[in-house]
Design a protein that fits this description.
Blueprint lengths: L2 H11 L5 E6 L6 E9 L2 E6 L2 E6 L1 E6 L11 E4 L2 E5 L4 E2 L5 E8 L1
Antiparallel strand pairs: 1-2, 1-6, 2-5, 3-4, 5-9, 6-7, 7-9, 8-9
């Protein structure tokens, strides 16, 4: 394990940074407990001369915790349920998935 992976383990174990969540497969109904870092950046969409700002929900998950997320899989955080939309993206080190979510 490299230094970067060790740092990621510590970040995801920190309750101030990451929260517990549940991943549910859309195809097999398999469930796995995971830890996620929530992000909610605004997204700007341009249409002609207009610009629209919309809320988004994204989470970062360690690849070691969730090796193969797919679109339409569910992520449950507390009482909130989200579906993965679009293809999951990995970081340069291939340690973290970034998942774009939509409420269900």
């Amino acid at each position: 394990m490299n230094v970067f992976a060790t740092a990621m383990d510590r970040i995801y174990a920190n309750p101030s940074m990451a929260v517990a969540a549940l991943w549910i497969s859309a195809t097999t109904s398999e469930e796995t407990s995971i830890r996620v870092i929530r992000r909610a950046p605004d997204h700007i969409t341009e249409f002609g001369a207009a610009r629209f700002v919309s809320d988004t929900m994204m989470v970062d998950v360690r690849v070691a915790d969730l090796p193969g997320p797919r679109p339409n899989d569910l992520i449950v955080i507390g009482a909130d349920s989200f579906a993965i939309q679009g293809e999951p993206m990995r970081d340069r080190e291939r340690l973290i998935w970034t998942l774009d979510l939509r409420p269900t």
